[in-house]
Amino acid sequence: GPLSERHLMDVRLGELPTWLATCDFSPQGLLGGVQKGWNSYYDKYINVKRGGPAGISMLLAGYCLLSYGWSYQHISKISFLLQE
């Protein structure tokens, strides 16, 4: 597509000055760029599909790690007493 519609990661190094010249650096343009970046981040990392076996297994794995962390002091005291 046209150079002005490409994302930064799609622009080659030699095309960078020309691409920067097509950018809108007005306050409204910068605000629009920030908003577009936030929407992209939100869609990729926050607004993802929920459910499925992967999500449930990650939830269970997190619960196991959290439970182990809570009881680690207790486990370490018992293992220390058994070593004596």
From TrEMBL:
It is found in: Mitochondrion membrane. GO terms for biological process: proton motive force-driven mitochondrial ATP synthesis. It comes from the Eukaryota. The keyword Mitochondrion applies. Transmembrane segments: none annotated. GO terms for molecular function: proton-transporting ATP synthase activity, rotational mechanism. GO terms for cellular component: mitochondrial membrane; proton-transporting ATP synthase complex. Keywords: ATP synthesis, CF(0), Hydrogen ion transport, Ion transport, Membrane, Mitochondrion, Transport. Pfam families: WRW. The keyword Acetylation does not apply. Belongs to the ATPase F chain family. PANTHER family: ATP SYNTHASE F CHAIN, MITOCHONDRIAL-RELATED (PTHR13080), ATP SYNTHASE SUBUNIT F, MITOCHONDRIAL (PTHR13080:SF19). This is ATPK synthase. The lineage of its organism: Eukaryota, Metazoa, Chordata, Craniata, Vertebrata.
